User: What shape does this take?
Amino acid sequence: MELFLITDVLVTDYSSMMFDFANTGRPMLFFTYDLESYRDNLRGFYLDFEETAPGPLLTGSDDVIGALLDIDEVAERHAGAYRAFVDQFCPLDDGQAAARVVDRVFGGS
Assistant: This one.
């Protein structure tokens, strides 16, 4: 998690770290060269990854490099999907989770 603080862009495949990294507001790129195999044969997804991913699905190394070279435009192009992802999966990640747990367990003041 500490690395998220100094990471400008997350390049990942299907890792669940996307849910944590989304709170940084920084761009995410998904290197999905094996998407069909992963989706259809290996593990599958709990959500419609292709529709929900908060960044581009890139199938080649050159695509990743190109996206990194133009990351501001890529981030702008995917801003709506990113916002929707955060709204759907991170609504309680506001820095107040521990306070809500304490209030729930011990009663609010």
Observations:
- The beta strands are 10-12, 28-31, 57-58.
- The first strand starts at residue 10 and ends at 12.
